[in-house]
Amino acid sequence: MKPAPFDLVRPREIAAAVALLAAAGDGAKVMAGGQSFGPMLNLRLATPSLVVDISGIAALKTAREEPDAVVYGALVTHADVEDGRVPDAGAHLLKRVASGIAYRAVRNRGTMGGSLCHADPAADWVNALSALGAQVEIAGPSGRRWLALQEFLTGALSVALGEGDLLVAVRVPKVPASARFGYVKHCRKVGEFAHAVGALLVDPAAGTARALMGAIDAPPLVLADARDLFGGRIDADFAARFDAAAAAAALHEAGVIDPVDRHVHVEVLRRAVRQADGLFSPDTRSAA
Amino acid sequence: MDVTAPGEGVGARLPRKEDDRLMRGRGQYIADIRLPGMQDVAFVRSPLAHARIRAIHVPEDLKGRVFTAADLNGVKPIRAVSGLPGFKVSEQPALAADKVRQVGELIAVCVAPTRAEAEDMAARVELDLEELPALHDMLEAKKPGAALVHEHWGDNVFLETLVNVNIEAAFDAPVKVSRTISTARQCMAPIEGRGTVVHLDHRMDQLVVHTASQMPHIVRSGLAECLGLDEGQIRVISPDVGGGFGYKAILLAEEICLGWLARRLGTPVRWLEDRREHLTANANCREHHYEITLYAERDGTLRGIDCEASVDSGAYSAYPFSACLEAAQVASILPGPYDFPAYRCRTWSVATNKCPILPYRGVARTGVCFALEVALDALAAELGLTPEVVRFKNLVRPEQMPFDNITKKHFDSGDYPEVLTRALAVIDPDKVRARQIKGEPDGRRIGLGLSIYCEQGAHGTSVYSGWGIPMVPGHEQAGARLTPDGGLELRVGVHSHGQSLETTLAQVAHEILGIPVARTRVFYGDTAMTPYSTGSWGSRVMVMAGGAVATACTELSERIRRIGAHMLQADLAEVRFAAGRVIGPHGDVGVNEIAHTWYRRPQDLPTDVDGGGLEVISGYKPVRDSGTFSYAAHAVVVAVDPEIGEVEILDYVIVEDGGVLVNPMVVDGQIIGGLAQGIGTALYEEMRFDSSGQPLASTLADYLLPGAPEVPAPFIGHMETPSPYTRFGVKGIGEGGAIAPPAAIANAVNDALRPLGVEMLHSPVTPRRIVEKVLAARAARARRSAA
């Protein structure tokens, strides 16, 4: 389990990385924290001719707060989020997600941008940030552009990055104080990739809900307007009206044909709903 | 025997000496060995489970650095024959020549300065293979007309056995419960994989084989046979070994290849197994299938057990334990710790296109315990009795000990019902059942599970000679030598890869000689330095090597006493040895002075002094070699989520009796480690294969092992019923922790889910399997109520 031969470059600037990637074309791969890419190299599942190690680009390691969002550099690590070294888009919300990613050793090195580019359908950032309506910023040979995360994720392990493109930032909208976020995953053991993920961002005051069912061997199923899962409306009693059959039907339509899988995914979403609902009580507000 | 320095002898909870080295990262494993000019090896392995080799194309520029079977002149295949009647012999070539029979089988060996370069070379070797139908299901492989793993056999059965003790007498029992129960194929997973470094020692004219092995002497014999060398031409060194569990109790085709390579190239060569090789090519164990029927009275009294058991032995017979170790043992140990009058068991060791089955901690016992204990709970449910009532009805009672069971196993001692009584007292079934009835606010279901087993350990010549496998343990030997300054060196042929022998054998020696544990060194893992031994397996080392060390130290103490008597100018009859001193009528002299005198001032001793001196090699066998029987009761409480299938272990209680414990803390460690592996078997570990025989997990992301969060801290209670047959009354306990958990946990899950009409009969009990059964039971109920 040793990688096939490859060249390694370590640019210090985004522009240099983009230029290297554009010049190398198809045979180039980006390495950020290396927590997924490293094993793929060792297993020779990835055999690039050039590895562009972006971990020396300081500009990708920062985060900034905007009035209605937090923008995370692609190299912000899971541990940076977990430890509060970067602002949270919701009160402890991303911190809660980050602390459940794999193991601490992985969190120390694994990055938010790397995780999104790897696009494992079971990964936490892929699911949690889709549920929160995040966008990604891509730097490429023809400049920079923003893309909704849902459009960025084109398939299992597949994203909308062209030759020379580099994901540089992730913009996560701030969660309004009136909203709550339920996020539940089903794993057989601590640190394992999830077999099912359910998430719900719900704001009874605004009457809105956004639901997600993930780890379905494809990009997550996002219901941007999830009112149909709750009898057509969102109010304080939304959780009691959770419509499992509607969720199952959405999964079926999304291609989840195995009934046992569907059952588990709906159950996990039900728990995310219950969790979000529980967070409306005053003593659990801090976890929202 | 006097306990000369309380706190260091037999029974002391002494911290492990070896931890100072191991916990500081100073252990010396195969991968730590660096030799000048050492070359790395990568293998070309079969990508197919079953195929004829039409051609192997080695690129011209790689000739002389890549070798195939055609190059291996004079190398013989591995033959692990069993003497049991009807056993069919497989020949496992070091490198495959005309056929491959499992994914990962060795086809070519590539040598390069680094492993990465060797892998580059391996990737350039082209194989022309004609794919044959692959046997991935032992029940299919058993059927007439199945493709043949070894054509000349005519079928795919290594061995079929039958034990029948009056089974007909059970047929009129009022209650009959039948179940199909099975366990998954697993990969035992020591942290350190296998590894071998071989070089030539021209001074000694020896091939020096450094290899991570539990049995260096057995590996030497096997290597000599396969390479056509005298045993004296081979030295096997097994340094620190990062876990064995049976995975390193085997002669490797890789070792043979490296032995041949080192001689051919004249340079040191190294192979370090990677995790993909470990999972896909090498580490299969455990896969059993049972059709079991229990016959009983309405009060739970067993009238008889009838069973058909198949074990998937894989493609070849592994050396030295053979392909039938598991299945043939199933027939003899299925009765467990119970007493009943009628029994029949037919077993098959089935050849398939998978890697050879290897003996994993607990060996056949984990599967047997799972089958019998899960079936017993089904019987209890059928009768409306609690699981403990059915067990108390049938356990061998203390007043029956020693007891010869229905398959002639000789249970040496113990109080089986008592461990169950004590385990129940801790787990508190009344409280658990009250909580169960009350229900959980989160919708989970509580279950209580029990299992109990007895484990034959340290069984010797009389047991293994009947098997006729390449290895039969006889007397175990140990060497004991006083150093000139009064320290002690022990030499043993067993290995310590987690057993803590550097501490515990020093404790045994201390019990006899009174020499501080800190001044005692234990040498092991080197055929040049240690007496012959079959090595560390079968929960035997403390009984056998411990007994041998005690015997050698006792002889040494007599030598010490004789020299001491000279020094004290006293009659031998007047002096005694105690607390590390020889005590005479008018004074005493310590071991240090005696050693100094023997080695450094022989002029002070009379000319007729015994020339044997202060070094002894002596041998030991227990009074009976039919084995010690340790035993334990496990009791576990789980919470099961029926909607998503998650199982949480809430409480785990173990009460065991391993006879006299040399170091109870070490025993606790063995039990906890075994429990972790048992939890793996119960809930996580499974190597699946697709219909073409491809293993479906090649990393630890796919092959799930329990981690620290999945292993609860158990309650451990000890009983100490001495074995009447062994030195100090010790019993083998190394494997027990891994035997009972799968049955106990499955029984707990079944206790939780039985009201839903769900029963789990296959390990591991995964969330997917639970949800499938819950939904199926729900659908069946809905159909019934509709009808």
UniProtKB/TrEMBL annotation, chain A:
Q: Keyword Flavoprotein: yes or no?
A: yes
Q: Which SUPFAM superfamilies match?
A: FAD-binding/transporter-associated domain-like
Q: Which residues form the FAD-binding PCMH-type domain?
A: 1-177
Q: What is the lineage of its organism?
A: Bacteria, Pseudomonadati, Pseudomonadota, Alphaproteobacteria, Hyphomicrobiales
Spell out the protein name for this chain: Carbon-monoxide dehydrogenase medium subunit
The signal peptide, as residue positions, is none
Organism of origin is Xanthobacter agilis
Reported EC number(s) for this entry are 1.2.7.4
MF term (GO), any: anaerobic carbon-monoxide dehydrogenase activity
For this protein, the record's PROSITE patterns field holds:
FAD_PCMH (PS51387)
UniProt keyword terms in alphabetical order: FAD, Flavoprotein, Oxidoreductase
Task: Please give the InterPro entries that the UniProt record associates with this protein.
Answer: Diverse_Substr_Oxidored, FAD-bd_PCMH, FAD-bd_PCMH-like_sf, FAD-bd_PCMH_sub1, FAD-bd_PCMH_sub2, Mopterin_DH_FAD-bd
